[in-house]
Design brief:
- Two copies of one chain form a homodimer.
- Chain A is an alpha/beta fold and 601 residues long.
- Chain A is 31% helix and 23% strand.
- In chain A, the strands form seven sheets. A six-stranded mixed sheet of chain A has the order 26-25-16-17-18-27, with helices on both faces. In chain A, strands 2-1-7-4-5 form a five-stranded mixed sheet. In chain A, strands 13-12-11-14-15 form a five-stranded mixed sheet, sandwiched between helices.
- The first copy, chain A, is globular.
- The first copy, chain A, starts with a strand and ends with a helix.
- The A-B interface holds A 127-129, 132-137, 153-155, 158-160, 162-163, 166, 292-295, 297-298, 302-310, 312, 314, 318, 334, 336-337, 582, 584, 587 and B 127-129, 132-137, 153-155, 158-160, 162-163, 166, 292-295, 297-298, 302-310, 312, 314, 318, 334, 336-337, 582, 584, 587.
């Protein structure tokens, strides 16, 4: 069974097949940890910390080097730590010699929180022989006074609340979601928590929220552990087509990760995971189906029909989430087989509302969804852009973090100049660096309009298998040789082609000229780092004035947070969902032509 | 851990602490199986069959004696079968030398079945690129045509129905309970099953019903396996008071038994347990709370408050019942801490409706509930009568089955004449025999008005510990000496006293003279076998004309079946529940006096 090691805050991951030390794992992905003793376990510089997962038993020599307080803090020496299962590793600045990164948060419109979940403090008369009402009757007689007579009691609540009533002497905080009672807490201040989750094919974004004021208390990004079953949706779906039993495993993996993220965020705030009273989860349709245990086989075969496109609000415990007993998970509706509730959340956060305003919305991810709003219509498409823009499938791809090449210029002789985040040694190249490099390679003639490297140019080199590549940075003392291969370029051009074809088809379908577009909203981590000029230059975006392009970061996560803390936003999203027309690209007339044109410069 | 061996159809059980052979177990409770070889395993006459549970591995000598076909039929030789866990054993007529018994079924009023669960056959248009509706939308668009637009879809249904749709080429039978979709079956004839359960402290009655026409397809009575935690409610409650963890165990035991009973009834009809689409369960309040996992500690302490007195309809799977996925269990409301939904079911089946008609209803069991209807009021009380009338706690007590003494007369010299069911050798005494014996002992002066045996009378003998008893039948070649001890008599008189006190207090409370009572309805197994004349003679019932007394057998089970197959009956029961006033006997003025008077003749 393969497993994943993820290095934070760099966002680089390695899929491993056999046990290895963390030092070796880091080397394999080009991360150079301080290691003055050369990995002999004597210098103590390669300190790392497990965020999740664990390594082999710590031995006495390592204990002596780290000292008691560091051991208590969860530190290990990377060179002495053998790992054989999935783990997320934090690399402290000292071990890397660099300052930490920041990550752009999804931006979203201002709105008033109006959470589904609310707290009602009550005090009941204790029972006696002259007042033999049952616990539930006693409770409902009292809550009726607060206008809460329509709130139902499920078995799970009835099983629990009577004990709390007696324990806290008939005074309690009652938690409800306006439909049913969820749980009781002792009297006193209680501020319920909420959990918003955006499940992407590659990344899982979790946000811990204060339900009452809508503030984000903590956020965690993790690799979607389902990645061991395939990097993109289609490969995971085909695993399930071959053996439907794997669906349960995919479900378990993602739920386990969400529990872990929620647990660790709660711990960091000294809160209990059972104080999470409401959850909102968005994701592409396959992730949505995997999470909910819905049959996903129909998503794998034409015409790609989802099980449902209604919103669902199942009990969290039924799915294995360890939040407040009886709490529910709000799952907004998916739109189509390949346009999920994450797209809906993106459009909600980006203010799409089906008005006259002509807007293009692009959420770039392993799957890219694009929506065009025009004349009170919203039409959405989905393209399999692949994970290239997230740095995956790119030899030296990484997130925009210290050590990433973020800008590249190439002179007329084909000689590169690279700008590295943190001005330290380079360990990889991030999305904006890749776009720069490709645009520059094309500009100086090293890349032709069909996207092939010029094999006759002296700046183009060849690997031992004879495959051409371009060298961005030569190998140095503490850095690998960083290159861009023909395969890397192909990945990016295929992704760009898919996205551009989607945009062009939408314009064609709604008969809009690109000049009429008033705003382009780009979401997704890549979109935040992308330079709009470059995006237009390589043809990812059509020729449009740069001021019209706005990056909004993880807008799907922002939309999930909005729906978590506001029932009004849930209603708005449902109305929006009803308004979205799905257009199937693959059967659109001349789709192959649009795609071929999209790939070219 | 103790375990129970129950012998059917005699209804005699033995609580065992250590492994023993079935032959020894039978002997201990006075059942003499044919055993010509004296238990050496050579005659092959003591054949028995396991209904549930199992014994030690069968060995070759036993195999030879039984032959292949009997082994396949599940037969064993009692003398060769060692048992160390709970089992229910069927004693074939040949092994007992007697014909089988019959059991009176609960009688109930005629009514039209109107089940909550219904079947709708549908055919859907398959999806295509020109019709990309999700599975659920496709379904609801079709079912709307049948007026079923208000039926909800829970996660469990959405997880399953799409696969069945595709497997049976978009034609299916949909099962719903008028509130939500439960499940889908392939097209064709489908007649859903229902399960009605009456959980008594001692016995569990399960009925498999045809939901559509309301007929009973099979019935099973079993010992309530919770009996290992105490024979009556209070002892089980005190076990939980000491250690709340035992509540889970009590819940598991009863659910396991219900599953086993349902499974075996379904098997006998070549049906699948998953075809059970609705369940209705009644029981006394403690049994109701144990089954539902509700906290029962408050039932153990004054003022004995139940968690709820609303009807509940939780998902069967949440409780561990193996019926149709997503099916629910209808649990009618308990009335008070010691007046359960079984009492409500009894009153429903017995036609109590709060009209002018003056009626007394008595459901005799380990706990006896009594209701008096008068002038549009129904007042109910509960008395802890103990299991004496069910034969438990009586040295030779047994159900009215072959081998039971059913009539006793005693001459002026104190010499008994006994009539045995099946005119075979006696193995015990059933309720009517006990009442006869006590009435006769009193009549001839062997028992004084305070219920003490006359120690100076020559017909009264003494056991080795010096305790007095009366011999009904001397020991014979193939029968034990059958006696009635002072302890047996005490048990019966305490039970009689508790019931009579309840009746008298109700008459006092509603200010009715006993002569005004128009009908007395007696339910419970004991009530069916009881001779009303004797009951009046010993003072269990007040002095009332015999024609007014009607036995209705297991009326609680009958009421459960009515509510299972008719939503109208559920509504009628809820209205009835609202109308029932609970009267707490223990705080009634002069209760001890009523009780003391009730015990006397």
């Amino acid at each position: 069974m393969s497993f994943i090691i993820e290095f934070e805050p760099l966002g680089i991951h390695l899929i491993c097949e056999a046990p290895l030390t963390l030092l070796d794992a880091a080397r394999q992905v080009g991360i150079h940890l301080r290691s003055e003793c050369g990995g002999k376990g004597t210098c103590g510089k390669c300190r790392v910390r497990f965020i999740s997962g664990k390594g082999n038993q710590i031995k006495s020599d390592e204990k002596i080097l780290l000292g008691e307080s560091q051991i208590k803090g969860g530190y290990r020496l990377a060179c002495r730590t053998l790992v054989n299962r999935t783990a997320q590793i934090y690399l402290p600045p000292d071990s890397l010699l660099e300052k930490q990164i920041f990550q752009i948060e999804g931006k979203y419109a201002e709105f008033q929180p109006r959470p589904a979940v609310q707290v009602q403090a009550v005090e009941l008369t204790p029972p006696s022989f002259s007042d033999l009402r049952s616990d539930l009757k006693r409770l409902s007689d009292t809550t009726r006074q607060f206008g809460l007579h329509e709130i139902q009691s499920g078995l799970g609540f009835i099983q629990h609340f009577g004990e709390q009533l007696r324990r806290s002497k008939w005074r309690v905080n009652l938690i409800h979601n306006q439909r049913e009672w969820l749980y009781t807490f002792p009297p006193g201040d209680f501020h319920p928590l909420g959990l918003a989750v955006d499940v992407g094919s590659t990344k899982l974004a979790c946000y811990l929220m204060n339900l009452e004021d809508g503030t984000t208390l903590a956020a965690r990004g993790e690799i979607n552990p389902q990645i061991v079953y395939g990097e993109d949706i289609m490969s995971r779906l085909s695993v399930i087509l071959k053996n439907p039993d794997h669906a349960k495993e995919l479900q378990k993996l993602v739920i386990h990760s969400i529990n872990e993220a929620a647990q660790s965020m709660c711990q960091s705030l000294h809160r209990n995971i059972q104080e999470i009273a409401d959850v909102c989860l968005v994701g592409n349709t396959a992730m949505h189906h995997f999470f909910l245990g819905l049959p996903s086989q129909p998503l794998a075969v034409s015409p790609f029909i989802p099980a449902t496109n209604s919103s669902l609000y199942p009990r969290a415990a039924d799915l294995g989430l360890q939040v407040m007993p009886n709490a529910r998970v709000y799952c907004p509706p998916p739109i189509a087989g390949f346009v999920g509730s994450d797209h809906l959340a993106f459009l909600l956060a980006a203010g799409f509302d089906g008005n006259q305003h002509k807007r293009l919305g692009i959420d770039i991810g392993t799957n890219t969804e694009i929506a065009l709003q025009h004349n009170q219509r919203i039409v959405s498409v989905s393209t399999a852009s692949g994970p290239a823009f997230e740095g995956a499938h790119i030899r030296y791809g990484m997130r925009a973090a210290p050590g990433a090449i973020e800008h590249v210029s190439i002179d007329e002789n084909g000689k590169p100049t690279c700008q590295v985040i943190g001005q330290s040694t380079a360990i990889g190249i991030c999305g904006s660096g890749i776009l720069d490099a490709i645009a520059e390679l094309h500009r100086v003639g090293l890349l032709n309009s069909r996207g092939r490297l010029d094999k006759n140019h002296p700046a183009i080199k060849f690997d031992p298998e004879g495959k051409p590549f371009y060298e961005l940075m030569p190998a140095g003392d503490s850095q690998p040789r960083i290159t861009l291969t023909q395969h890397d370029i192909d990945q990016v051009l295929l992704a760009k082609g898919a996205i551009r074809a989607g945009i062009e088809i939408l314009l064609d379908y709604l008969k809009i000229n690109v000049k009429q577009i008033e705003e382009v909203i780009v979401a997704g981590a890549f979109g935040s780092y992308m330079n709009p000029e470059q995006a237009i230059q390589i043809g990812l975006l059509p020729d449009i004035s740069i001021e019209k392009v706005h990056a909004v970061g993880n807008a799907a996560g922002a939309g999930a947070r909005m729906m978590l803390v506001s029932t009004e936003m849930r209603h708005r999203a449902l109305a929006l969902a009803d308004n979205i027309e799905y257009l199937e690209l693959t059967i659109y007339p001349d789709f192959p032509l649009f795609f071929a044109r999209g790939i070219q410069f």
